[in-house]
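re: that chain from earlier
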Amino acid sequence: MAAGRYLACEDDGAVLLLGLEASVTRIGRSPAADVELEVPTVSRRHALIVIRDQTAVLLDDGLDGTWLNGRRVAKAVLVHTT
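^ sequence. v structure.
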């Protein structure tokens, strides 16, 4: 796999790696989202991943809240984990 930024998503027990190549990645149920999630608890416009000064930041894009590692966040810096 090429070097770069990736979003790891679990799907039926498998982990999918999605490349984060744009400065803004839209996440939600909408077909217009860059990462479309077919989950009823996810808003059509749910969250954004924004690259700022070489840092990936997760931003809530609505009113329902966004969860990261079991914690509700409005904004969070994403870091590499293993």
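The beta strands are 6-11, 14-19, 24-28, 35-36, 47-52, 55-60, 66-68, 71-73, 75-78.
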